[in-house]
Protein 1
Amino acid sequence: MSGRPEGHAPMLALLLFVVAVQLLALIIMPEFVASGNRVFEDPESAANPILYLLLILGFTLFLLLALKLKQGWILSAVIMISIAASVYYVLATFMSPLLALLPTLAVLLLLRFYPEWYIVDAFGILVCAGISALFGVSMTPIPALLLLFILAVYDAISVYRTRHMVSLAEGVIGIKAPLLFVVPRSKGYSFRQDQQISGDGRKGAYFLGLGDAIIPTILVISASWAIEATKLLGISLPALGAMLGTYAGFLALMMTSREKPQAGLPFLNSGAVLGFLAGCLLAGVNPF
């Protein structure tokens, strides 16, 4: 979900976050492939995106219930535990499990006691890249394409019809949960102190959900490891096409958004899929 930034600088910053996530995910992908760490046992199974959706629905339902019951501490605790697990799992791929505990604890302390926008953004890039790489190596392109389609539809419904994703976004912003990229509108903005919410986001900043960076990047990673194809700048053409398509979808999102929150995945996922297919065509490979 996204609001429209005024001027080019916020838009460029949000786009650069997505670019950074995808490049970092490509860098760490070989470690996940080499380690054999995967979320799903069979990367080719069409059931994988369904399981992913069920996981999202269950987590979202739990968070919404906590918000409705005004149990913010439960919401915050669950999010922080999920963050700790994600950070630890990624770090444990590159270092000993015991050693990975130290930076995981450091990240949690920073996010708990000093959740300023630049710390939240830096954390977001690292975690999005790790999650994207992990799920990307857990699916071949066909399940990944199915996942992008399902989640684009779900995002549109949850923002425009049921609006539960809007309520959830406002809730996680209110408790300073690090589940969004934050771009200040002006100098001196403090995410920790900002308490105002407007129709298109918060008055002092604009936001982009971490999922808007993670989901299209899953296809980028899947295309990179699962398809043998011609490379350009060290990136296979199908993966590069998915990346460029994501950026095109992002720019379309920024141009069409107005005063209300917008569903980002229909734009980003559509761009990633079209770019992926174009890359396959240029590489002369059949992804199906």
Note: The first strand starts at residue 180 and ends at 184.
Protein 2
Amino acid sequence: MQTEELLKELVRQKYSEIALQDKATNQSSCCGAGGCSTEIYNIMSDDYHDLTGYNPDADLGLGCGLPTEFAKIKPGHTVVDLGSGAGNDCFVARAETGAEGKVIGIDFTSAMIEKARHNAEKLGYNNVEFREGDIENMPLGAATADVIISNCVLNLVPNKPNVFKEIFRVLKPGGHFSISDVVLVGELPDALRKDAEMYAGCVAGAIQKDTYLEFIAGCGFVNLTLQKEKAIQIPDDILIKYLNEQELLHFKSGNSGIFSVTVYAEKPAKGNCSENTGCC
């Protein structure tokens, strides 16, 4: 059984390599885990091109949604992006906050932080900063953020309840988050789950959708809303390597699968959380 620290180190090593890959490689391999499919298309990521603030140099194709599109960011807001990578979502958020707002990206991979800072410098943004740190123990004070966003990151974290506790702590009373992530619905075939761990590292840490939502509600958040949900279609040339014809038909016609969700919730205006949750 791998320890949480070992899992984190494996993720850190993988994303240090991803920071040096191009977008096309990352998009065709789900979270940059490796190019196993000949069906080259965007397996998980959504199209940013119509969003103001989008910067192609900062887009590594690692997302599974568009959390900034749903995040209700206003001018002057302080926005925190968890697992900020090369800075893509931070720069889109900055277009919403304006020059009077502030955007802070947190990532625990040095190579990603370096890439993001380089991108921010090229863009001349002095209100976007990137801090190296663990999102289970954010390098931020309590009640710092009006809005927290994240894109296809929490699924990589072994202890998800700890992240939601930190989100609660860092949000201002009345603040909110919009997070895109990968979840599971139903039981995946064992062979497919093993393949997901190999070819789509972002799926390896995914948990059941109901459990994910329970973690959020149990931490004291209110107005929990599922803003978007879409099925992640795994290419047939991957599926047929691990499932026989009958298993393939059953899987594709069933209700189980891998889904991208965008979830919204608010910290109560008084800043109170449920007793014994550890969120305060």
Note: The domain at 4-266 is CATH 3.40.50.150 (Rossmann fold).
Protein 3
Amino acid sequence: MKEETELKALVREKYGQIALQEKEVNQQSCCGAGACSTEVYNIMSDDYQDLNGYAPEADLGLGCGLPTQFAQIKAGDVVLDLGSGAGNDCFVARHETGPEGKVIGIDFTPAMIEKARKNAEIRGFDNVYFVEGDIESIPLQAHSVDVVVSNCVLNLVPNKAAVFAEIYRVLKPDGHFSISDVVLHGTLPQGLQQDAEMYAGCVAGAIPRDQYLGLIFSAGFEGLSIQKQKPIDLPEDILTHYLNEDEIKEMKSGQSGIFSITVYAKKPSQKTCAPGSNCC
């Protein structure tokens, strides 16, 4: 697998292309990556149709859950969406915060920021902002956010521990997050681990579930719970691009698996700083 800086450049380039694609193209792949399947229409993303505030033109089909459905957003909250894409989760969050709240989307792909800003302008939202930035170094003040959401983005970040430290830093005491992401049970086959395209597709960047949850605890969060979990089955016409027949059989046997989880945790009420959180 490539070095961290190369991976970031790959993701930025790939998601710049995705910003110009139709949703139907993205949903037939893994988070918009290549090797589209002819067996299924929708591999990872959940259906937003029943959520208030849903904006179809801002939904690029790149998610793996519905974090805003579980985020317990209240009127007047300040909400931060990490990896905001074309803005869909921000617009759902804005319905919950109302006009008295504020929603901030951060993305490091300029084409996504441009698309999201246009979508917000069309709706006349003056309390939804989109900022270009790296979620390993969030460009917001400490203790400034009530709720953090993110949908299938941390997989794309090589240094996930840095992101959780930053989430801890920007959350107010008693603030919380709801994050949907992809995790592993067992070991991902080498063919998937080593492929850069599958990294951009949220799969090769996945880490074991226990390791993922451990990063959350290490960042200082409490009250962790799994709000939703579902298996993700990659169709054979995708797997055959990366694995041989025996590897596909082993993966289908259940010895290893890929799951979407939506995770909740909160920052303690006291203004304490977790080690390495840079919040002091």
Note: The longest helix spans residues 4-18.
